[in-house]
Fold this protein.
Amino acid sequence: MWMLLHGFTGSPKSWDAVVARGDFDRDPLRPTLTGHGIEWRASAARSFQDEVARLSTLASSLDPPRFVAGYSLGARVALGMLVASPECFDGALLIGVHPGLPDEDARAERRALDEARADQLRTEGLPAFVAQWESQALFETQRSLPEEIRRRQREIRLEHDPEGLAHSLEMLGLGAMPNYARALSSNRVPITLMAGARDSKFRDLAIGLADRSPNIESVIVDGAGHNLIVEATDAVVTALDRVQRAALEGPR
């Protein structure tokens, strides 16, 4: 059974197109990450590791074989789960994942950026934040997507509570995340790292991490950028199926 984790400003609905096209034996579990949704306070995490622990407990209740997939923020949280509770999983697909910053200076710099973003959410409100968020170069490749897809993404982003997203930045931001690079390299769970060829930073991260471990492979999607869930939905569906089949068939 699959657990699917959305990205920052996303929601379980972000996976709708993938779930509609995929061949799942059971409906995937799609939890809402801390800070997201109107009722976010009911499951508000106190730290990155707290969120990892909460979701690992959920994963342990899934029917085996168990798989986890995550996009961006969701991929980082999924990575934490794979490191903290590898016994819970038979395979994983991480899309646009960062393994964590290498030192405290880099984490402090990122925390300052995320704190500034949290302050913008609290002072300027959600529409202004979403407009600036969508203008990042990271999402440049999405501007050629059909208007309906982009409109749907914006609707999902605007459904949140600005205080909740500020909380997410403070608890789950890259500056709050441990560096999992070394633990990832020694992890025994089969992991597929997926990135768009036009997303150079995360493409290079995926290739570099895969080179360090026989249990990790990279899949690079030509012509796509960061958000493969919407930019290359069929490729994501294919990768999910491949991860599941590989686990069922034995070690690759």
Observations:
- The longest strand covers residues 191-196.
- The radius of gyration is 17 Å.
- The chain has a mean pLDDT of 95.
- The longest helix spans residues 104-124.
